[in-house]
Predict the structure.
Amino acid sequence: MHEDYKEENLKGLRVLLVEDNMINTKIAQKIMGQWDVIVDTAENGLVGVEKFNSNSYDVILMDLSMPVMDGYEATTAIREMDKLIPIIALTASASFGYLDRALQIGINEYIIKPFNPKELNMKLRKYYFP
C-alpha cells in the first residue's frame, strides 16, 4: 500500500512518544531518528501528561494500553488542556469499538502496531510545518 512512498526528512519535528514497552520505544526512536525527528519519551500516560504540561510538542504518539494511566485517560487529560495538538494512537487492536472510542475522546488517527515506518512517516508528515 505504501511501497512507492518515499520517506521524508522531518527535521525539527517534536514528537512525544508515550509507550510503556521499552523495545517498541527504542525501535520508534531509531526509526524517527533517521528522519531527524526530536523524540521525547514517556513510559506511561501519567508521565506523558506531565511532560506535555512542561514541554512543547508538534505531535503525540500515544500507546492506548499502558499501566498507571492508559492512552485513553492521558488523551482525555491532554484534550482538556489542548484541543488541537495532533494525537496519533498506537494500538495493537484494530477492533472497531476500540478505535471508535479513541476517536471519540479526541485521537486524530491511529497506527496499528507493529507499525510500518512508511505509514508513520506519512502520518507525521501531515503535521510537519518547518
About this structure: The CA atoms of residues 90 and 115 lie 8 Å apart. The chain has a mean pLDDT of 93.
